[in-house]
Amino acid sequence: MTGAVRLIPVPALSDVAEYAYAAAVEPPTRLVFTAGACPLDAEGRTVAPGDHVAQARQVMANLEVALAAAGAALTDVVKTTVYVASSRQDDLVAVWEVVRDAFGDHEPPSTLLGVAVLGYDDQLVEVEAVAAVRGDG
Question: What is the pTM of this model?
Fold first, then answer.
């Protein structure tokens, strides 16, 4: 982590959540906003139609590549929003486990949403992120 992100646990709230309840960005920093990372391969094809977990893995790999292009890493992420095309809580939990595991010990605040449809054919998962990096990087 660059030191620009300070995760804030909130002991007054439930410890069931597998993420910090808040995060602060310490100056001086550069913010990086990603588009939603999608489960697309290098040719633009949706990977693993029908498989939430496999798509989540591809999404996180693509998110890492996008962050790296901006000089950031998963440990610089301040906030994520995770979209899952499903009304089944089991699908949301399965995707969340992939996302959570990709971040390791870094547990930024996150919002997990079940949605009706996403932008690409057969797309089930999308993750957008905001990261903070020290310096001009």
Answer: 0.91
Rounded CA gap, 118 and 68, in Å? 25
14 CB neighbour count, 10 Å cutoff: 8
Asked if 112 contacts 46 with a C-beta cutoff of 8 angstroms, the reply is: no
pLDDT value, residue 136:
57
Mean pLDDT calculated for residue range 26-34: 92
Distance CA 40, CA 22 (A): 30
SS3 content of the chain, % helix, strand, coil (to 5): 25, 30, 45
Q: What is the largest CA-CA distance in the chain?
A: 47
**Mean pLDDT to the nearest integer, 114-135:** 96
Buried b / exposed e over 64-99, threshold 16 CB at 10 Å, is eebbeebebebebbbbbebbbbbeeeebbebbbebb
Would you say 81 and 127 are in contact if contact means Cβ atoms under 8 Å apart? Answer: yes
